Amino acid sequence: MPGKAAKIVFTEKQQAVLLEFSTSRSVSTALAQRSKIILLAFGGLNNEQIEAQIGLGHDRVGAWRRRWQREYENKRHGTIGLFGNFHVATGQIWCPLLLETRTKEDTLENLGNAIGQDPMASFRLVMDNLTTHASESIVRYVAASIGFEGELGKKGVRGILQSVKTRVAFLTDPTHRIQFIFTPRHCSWVNQIEMWFSTLQRKVTAAISYTSVDHLTERIESFIEYYNAAYAKVYNWTYTGRVLSE
Q: The pTM is what?
């Protein structure tokens, strides 16, 4: 006999975001599955019915359903986004940028902060393949930084700036001093910053309730400063590349 499942409620804005995530090909498979779970639960399906549609175990469906309910019941005081730059050679977080938005302009500001740590050094920047990471402004910034003297063209018309594909080709050019390396779709987990983000979640964002955005920002900044000084280390990859499944 199925147990009583947690009731699901959300706002219209949250519903729109969940619908977008559930069908998007640019988000992780896990996030898409979680979004579908919440939408199906809101539609009245019990955990067994959701399990049959999604293909996840009963326990995992129930866990995500309960987690959403807890999050909804907590009073929200606002949110803040973190641009984190994980320095692979030291394990430290470089020039963290906390903002309430994640626009193309914000992405450019974060890139400038990171490159500004050593403007003449060579950089290999690993990141998700989001369109904001391959914007016209990003290409122009990289071109100016490396002293590129070629023609950039015009967005939507010709040349390097013409399309996302041509901009990505320029940014990922291995001959450039600043080279972007985009993770494949649904594979953001291969980026080491994701491991650090899980540490931040366990130690800071999921462990304590915050009274304001300023309070949360202060705690994140304090944790990063302490982490860099006391705990930063190089991550040792143990995965050898063996195929996990056919």
A: 0.66
For 41-86, what is each residue's pLDDT tens digit?
888 888 888 888 887 776 788 887 777 776 654 455 567 888 989 9
SS3 85: strand
How many Å is the maximal CA-CA distance in the chain? 70
DSSP string for residues in 103-157: -HHHHHHHHHHHHTTSTTS-EEEEE---GGGG-HHHHHHHHHHHT--S---BTTT
> Percent of the chain, pLDDT > 70?
85
CB 65 within 8 A of CB 9: no
Which residues share a beta bridge with 94? 85
58-73 helix and 47-54 helix, angle to the nearest 10 degrees: 120
- In contact, 48 and 54? CB cutoff 8 Å: no
- How confident is the model over 188-200, as a mean pLDDT? 83
Burial of 73: CB neighbours in 10 Å, binned 0-12, 13-18, 19+: exposed
Cβ count near 241 (within 10 Å): 5
> CA 79 to CA 98: how far, in whole Å?
10
Q: Is 135:108 a contact under the CB 8 Å cutoff? A: yes
- Residue 188 CA to residue 208 CA, distance in Å, equals 26
